[in-house]
Amino acid sequence: MTTLADRYHMTKRLGDGTFGEVLLARKIDTGDKVAIKRMKKKFKTWEEATALREVKALKKLPHPNIIKLREIHRTSFWLFRCEIHHYEPQFRDRYFPEGVIRNIIYQILQGLAFMHRNASMKIREFLDVDSAAA
Length: 134
Description:
Keywords: ATP-binding, Kinase, Nucleotide-binding, Transferase. This protein has four helices and five strands; from the N terminus they run αβββααββα. The chain is α+β, with helices and mostly antiparallel strands.
């Protein structure tokens, strides 16, 4: 049985959030850059891990503006999601030009519309929206 370390070379830590830590890695056999998310929650079974709404949704949502889930690994109760990585460091520490912001918002809305049409997802399922403002 191959491990995550047998398939991916971890290069750096991209960030840490409420639900997991994200690492930049390179797939050893293809050289593809991927983002690997290690979920903070521990899972007792494979079924419990793959039942996550986030995992189930990403498996069935093929769209250019939605992250593509490549693989799922579960080792010692940790769940790892391997996704195609599109990191653009040129805007990391400065303001985005207005045209770039417009394009990013357009892509987010395209992905959101696709999710709503194809997965019956509601905004409240993935955004923390103030009900008074919505």
